[in-house]
Design goal:
Elements lengths: L1 H14 L14 H15 L5 H6 L4 H5 L6 H17 L7 H15 L5
Helix pairs in contact: 1-2, 1-5, 5-6
Length: 114
């Protein structure tokens, strides 16, 4: 759990100052967004089911539908997450799994043409 808390903190530290991805997040809800992503990741990778107990099914595309996510936004999100993965010294054995998961999830969120 601590790993994902650190990862999400490193990610949102970058999001807060990013002109593309950061603009999609209400500044007053960055902490809430971090809590939700952290809970989701903890659950997704084998931790307690707290996220689903509190929020129901993740419904990722539905929850992200209000945001204009194109390939450029997807690529930037992955860039920020990749830097966060570096920041928290992700173990070499876990890195390919996480890189693939985040790339697939970010691609799934695309809802606007470039």
């Amino acid at each position: 759990d601590d790993y994902f808390v650190r990862l999400v903190a490193a990610f949102y530290q970058r999001v807060a100052t990013d002109d593309l991805v950061g603009a999609m997040y209400p500044k007053e809800d960055l902490a809430g967004a971090a809590d939700r992503l952290g809970g989701f990741l903890i659950q997704r990778f084998g931790g307690p089911q707290t996220y689903s107990q509190q929020r129901g099914h993740p419904r990722l595309r539905m929850r992200h539908a209000p945001f204009a996510i194109d390939t450029r936004a997807r690529d930037r999100w992955i860039e920020l997450m990749s830097a966060a993965l570096d920041d928290v010294q992700t173990p070499a054995t876990a890195r390919p799994v996480l890189d693939r998961f985040f790339a697939d999830a970010a691609t799934f969120m695309i809802n606007r043409a470039d």
